[in-house]
Amino acid sequence: MSGLDPTFTDLPYRALGDAALTRARELGVTHADFRFERVRYQSLRVRDGALQGASDAEDLGFAVRVIHQGSWGFAAGVVLTPEEAVRVAETAVAVAVVASGMTTRPVEIADEPVYDDVTWVSAYRTNPLEVPTADKVAVLVDWTQRLRTGSAVDHATAYLQQVQENKYYADLAGTRTTQQRVRMQPGFEAMGAGADTFDSMASIAPPVGRGWEYVTGTAAEGAWDWDAELDEVPELLAEKLKAPSVEAGTYDLVIHPSNLWLTIHESIGHATELDRALGYEANYAGTSFATINKLGTLQYGSGVMNVTGDRTQEHGLATVGYDDEGVETQRWDIVRDGVLVGYQLDRPMGVMLPELNGGRSNGCAYADSPGHIPIQRMANVSLQPDPDPTGPSTADLIGRVERGLYVVGDKSWSIDMQRFNFQFTGQRFHTIKDGELVGQVRDVAYQATTTDFWGSMEAVGNRDTWVLGGAFNCGKAQPGQVAAVSHGCPTSLFRDVRILNTLEEGGN
Amino acid sequence: MATPTNPQSLVEQALVATTADDCIVIVRDHTSANLRWANNTLTTNGVMHGLTVTVVSFVGEATGSVTGSATTQAQVTDLVKAADAAARAASPAEDRNPLVTAADSPASPAWDDAPEPTDIHVYDAFAPALGEAFGRAQAGGRILYGFVNHEVTTTYLGSSTGLRLRHVQPTGHYGCTGKNAALTESAWVGGATRDFADVDALAIDAEVAQRLAWGSRRVDLPAGRYDTILPPTAVADVMIDAYWYAGARDAWEGQSVYSRRPTGTRIGERIASPGVHLYSDPAHDRLQCAPFNVATSSGSESSVYDNGLPLGRTDWIRDGELAALLQTRHTATMTSQPVTPAVDNLVLDIDSGAGTIDDLVAGTERGLLLTCLWYIREVDAQSLLLTGLTRDGVYLVENGEITGSVNNFRWNESPIDLLRRFSHASATVPSFSREWGDDYFSRTATPALRIPDFNMSSVSQAM
To answer: Residue ranges of the Metalloprotease TldD/E N-terminal domain (chain A) (predicted)?
Structure first.
């Protein structure tokens, strides 16, 4: 495990924070917070054995947010001097004054204990940004070369995204937090053409809050089994290119975590963000069918559905010690025995609905850069496995299906602005006949309404089927922000889901 | 004592500091100001300033690219060291080409000028009107949710081969969603602007009110294929996808709707109706964008070696034929086609297009009028089948008039098919993609299109 990066702790954030907060206090604000961030990125792309692109980037700067005259004011800057910190604080206050003319409901935020100078570092062994680039490129080159040995593979790509995020937060109440986390997303894709078609097959390895050991380490260190997948994908692609087109209709689905995580993200994760339920995303990402009047009564899904929000999950992409409003992170229930029982909150939301979490935020404020204001963002939202260790395995679930599909890997996704109607595709769809896998079909999408879909979930797999998936690139808010989030789930069985043939949908 | 810096001095200092064979420096000064509202009150806001420096170093056949927030000479020197080291450690770049020179791309006359900023005062007229609009909406039983953003980016691109290029890019947009008090009807108004001089909050509220009034009669319709009028904003949504997926390399390698398999592109092939023209032009009125290529890293559709290449009008579809795909010099060699890099605007013109969207409505016996599209994603690359949803207003047209509002739908369609199947088009007007305009691509001009058999795949309960 690593400690705080000294190249970050050497930066003058404490002096800047003190200057900004002191000036904000002098100007009479009722709340002020200061956030200093350095986010380092590296992106590597390889195509057919050659490095196609490599870039390093660093986002460095700070922001001051105030509540003044009952309104928010926010300003951000990049010049790292106390004088500039004072100027940015003054700008934030001036923006709040402008905003007060358009604010009809005074801003309040939920109380939170003071955390005086605490630190938190995520769980990883080797920071990928400290591994020589040439070593990482060599791995990606090797992957594409190995994939291309498959007879059906015409082209192959591989990529590696890496992020190191450091944040310092301070507010007028006295909280000061300094944090560091690392995340990475390796992956690859093989492309091939058949007689009258082409298609691709991508890795199903999830992005993780781990270090380089995820690529080259041992299974005990959480490494993905890249060798097995590199061996498997060319053959799976060859089979897919020859597979028949699916017959549209209604099928039972056994969905692997590599696909189901995304359905959870879209139909549960976003739907239980309280800012959406209250209308604060209505102009952009949308609202939610899971409105606050349904808390405790909405039958979200079947009785085997239990979903948690968790910002403390080890190796989760949304895992952190304290959020961007100085709130200690937590774990809580969102759906219990199929019923809606919780939401994701930040401090402004917490004070609006004291019946939730005792009026306290559950730690879901996040800003993706020093130039953006914190907003309510998703915790790691996960579907719990069957608590019985002898509960169903994936084979058991497949064995229960007479006519169906086994869905593996994500691909295309879309859901409406209240999270009712969704349509997803996948990397591969294996036909299930009388409890056995009998080959792939192509051109498949599944389409459903959220509560119908989760209501049709007959069984969840045991803990051994559970995988922590996730996304690097969840978009939300205006101006747009990108967040990384994990979703764990077991393999699960759904009955009577609508399957589309995408060729027929296109009129071909 | 620190030496005062400006973007030009950061460029020059980087070019002096580099120990690479060649170097390109891109400095972007970015300022922005935004207001966001919901439930008839302001919710968040912000004023931001950022200065990023990208150093691309070239050593032998390799490159290294490093970007960072930098305002001092010391920070720039660190970026140069990192880029030089990255280039020395890199393997040969597959897209290597001679760098563009000042002879290819003459210096910008305004190179020495300072960055042009924006700030909260861009809303000096809009903000009070927005406050008044909140009051009117409250009194009228409407709830407003929306966002305005204005930003100005001044880009400086200098190179060891003599490039000294500068471009100022203002970008602004507004969007306002209105709902009735029962939250059973929704409407949206949005558009792009360069300076907010042409944006009136009270006019926006008035249009939202008119659209909500169209929903006084509610009609529920099942999934199916409908005669459907796509407004310019929705046409912009799907044309942007058609543009983004037009990479020459993917097409050449058999992986897109623009592929002639097993190897080759469909350039020269008719893919749309005669009279259809899809093009980009950096000088297009009200859609002006950078007239030279800027690439901070290489990929399938961009190359750091192409930095500074002059950009002009590029026809992607000409009179229904595929005329060009997104090409770097590297892929142009691969495909034996002209170099046609991406341009930051997009225009769809139809020779037969005339009149307004109101004229299309007046000529429709029974059909649907959409407001905008949402959550658009590629389903099938081979046909460029997209899926998405209607949003914030689907209206029933009967005998040339809007007679009520209809439930939302999920749709599955290909933009290439739409350009072949449309029956009527309006004149091209400035438009704004609801899906992509906020964050990625706001400079579009498109007509409204009437599609005889638009595939509404299923009903969405969203309101």
So the answer is: 32-96
Please indicate, yes or no, whether residues A401 and A490 belong to a single structural domain of this protein.
yes
Partner-chain contact A91 B47, CB within 8 Å = yes
According to the model, what pLDDT value does residue B261 have? 77
Helix (H, G, I), strand (E, B) or coil at A424: strand
| Chain A interface includes B128 (CB < 8 A) | yes
pLDDT in tens, B65-105: 999 988 899 999 999 999 999 999 998 999 999 999 999 99
Quote the DSSP letter at residue A130: G
Q: B307 near B55, Cβ under 8 Å?
A: no
Sign for the pseudo-dihedral over CA of B434, B435, B437, B441: negative
Report the number of distinct structural domains present in chain A: 2
Q: How far apart are CA A176 and CA B50, in angstroms?
A: 25
Residue A1 lies inside a defined structural domain of this protein: no
Tell me which residue range forms the domain holding A397: 249-506
- Cα-only R_g, chain B: 24
Q: Where are the domains of chain B?
A: 7-212, 217-239+352-460
- According to DSSP, residue B192 is labeled E
Question: So what CATH class is B7-212?
Answer: alpha beta
Same structural domain, A233 and A282? no
Query: Alpha-carbon distance A447 to A497, whole Å?
Result: 7
Strands (E), B268-384: 276-280, 314-318, 321-322, 346-350, 366-380
A365-366 vs A118-121, strand pairing mode: unpaired
Does the distance separating the beta carbons of B382 and A420 come in below 8 Å?
A: no
CA B272 from chain center: how many Å?
A: 22
Write the CATH number for A61.
Answer: 3.30.2290.10
Residue among A78, A80, A95 minimizing CB distance to B49: A78
Interface test with A, best of B5, B6, B42, B294 (most A CBs within 10 A): B42
Is A399 part of any domain?
Answer: yes
Please state, in angstroms and rounded to a whole number, the distance separating the CA atoms of residues A130 and B153.
32
Answer whether A421's CB lies under 8 Å from A447's CB.
Answer: yes
pLDDT digits (tens, 9 = 90+) for B212-249: 999 889 999 999 999 999 999 999 999 999 999 999 99
Q: Are B248 and B298 contacting, i.e. CB atoms less than 8 angstroms apart?
A: no
Half-sphere exposure of A8 (CA within 13 A, CB side): 23
Identify whether residues A156 and A262 lie together within a single domain: no
The SS3 of residue B137 is helix
What's the whole-model pTM score? 0.96
Same domain, A196 and A262: no
> Can you tell me the ipTM of this complex?
0.95
DSSP codes joined into one string, A200-235? EEE--PPPBS--THHHHS-GGGT---HHHHHHHHHH
- Residue B214: CB atoms within 10 Å: 17
The mean per-residue pLDDT over the stretch A82-94 comes to 97
Q: DSSP for A69-127, please give it.
A: TTEEEEEEE---SHHHHHHHHHHHHHHHHHHHTT-SS-----------SEEEE-S-SS-
Q: How far apart are CA A396 and CA A461, in angstroms?
A: 9
- Residues A320-368: pLDDT tens digits? 999 999 999 999 999 999 999 999 999 999 999 999 999 999 999 999 9
Strands A249-255 and A492-501 turn out to be antiparallel
In a domain, A296, yes or no: yes
The kind and range of the H/E element at A3 are none
Positive or negative CA dihedral for B206, A285, A101, B45? Answer: negative
- The mean predicted confidence, pLDDT, of chain B is 96
Best to test chain A binding among B6, B27, B31, B69 (most A CBs inside 10 Å): B69
Location of structure tokens 């190191």: A164
**Is any Cβ of chain A less than 8 angstroms from the Cβ of B93?**
yes
